[in-house]
Specification:
420 residues, 7-stranded antiparallel sheet, 14 strands, 3-stranded antiparallel sheet, 10 helices, flat, alpha+beta
Amino acid sequence: MSTTFTIEPGTTIGPYRVRRGFDREGGKREGGMSHVFEVEVRPEYHKPNLPNRLALKVAKEDHQKALVAEADLLAKCSGHPNVVQILPLAGFRRATYAARSNFPFGWGWFYTMEFVEGKTLDDYMAPSIVTSLLNPSPEIGQQLSLYKILNITHQLTTALQHVHKQHIVHLDVKPQNIILRTPTFGYLSSNKQHLVLCDFGIAREILHRREEVLGIATAEYASPEQARDSKRNPQTIDVRSDIFSLGIMLYQMLTGRLPFRDIAQTTDRNYAPDPPSRFRPSIPRQLEAITLKALAKSPSDRYQSIAEIQEILKTVPTQPDWEAARQRIFAGMSLTACIACAGLSAIAGHAIISASEATPTPIVRTITPSPSPSATTTPKLTPTTAPQSTVTKVPTHTPTKTPRPVTPAPTVAPTLTPRK
């Protein structure tokens, strides 16, 4: 049976209508055990206290039980702002978090969660053009600013501490499962981004072993005991496994590279990665100490709880938010330039309107007639008005000697003498 399928936009799944799907090839978010779709609640199932735009997760045919267990674990962890929120399904009288529907492969389980918009942490650490030019190796990505690293670490440790208090271990802590969303206009005051931990597909309760078919953890971020764990060779898996994965992420954010090239180096007790300060000398010593201790091969040599890491994080010097400062300066310069351009445009427009509404100055032209013996008076001046124009030219008057017209002598009428 095929483990892949597509659902066209507009298809209804219970009380939901599909808007679009996410696929791994397109860089979107989809787990290895499921398909994820953006859906909207059909009008007849709208509830005022629940969002209408959601993410719907459908289990692949070989992981039906795993998705039901995931929904149950996620429901126990909901309520924390840094953990993705599972939402009760629409159309049920009681709070129900997982249900079945008919899909292309047959009947399958699904659940809905909040739709989180933003980039994954993996997107932010992907090699940039500058990084690729300086070092063409695809294994080396971008180093994040210390301000961003501390912000992400504080929020991620808070999320993991909440999960661990529910006696749940995530087991898949990696950049692809961490979404960072920036509040609208948030950069004007701070560059702090809101972190959301997602994908509990292989999470398990510490006291209970999951027997159903699970997905495989990403090898680059798996702890040594997680890599060795199997039915024939069961290992003790607890919160210290998540602490190891956190150490790998810290190393990668600081240096732009992974501490271990493959699973063999991860499980080799004699192999230790280079200190992060070798690649970035400006790293605070407290942050480097946290990273290296979290990467200890033996769980007993690591931090035993997230709370221990949080206490040491408090001693790390606070870093300035240079990125937000640059953004605020750019925003201020752009706003100033817009205001200046608007002011110049208003002045120019006012000048044009004033010039067009100005009263034109009449132009007087003197007409001097040629002397005529029959003329008895001096011709009058005839004023003419020049056409309206934005610029009025004053006529240049050049005096000329005009001969006075000759006044003819009066003619005496003849006297008629009557004949006798």
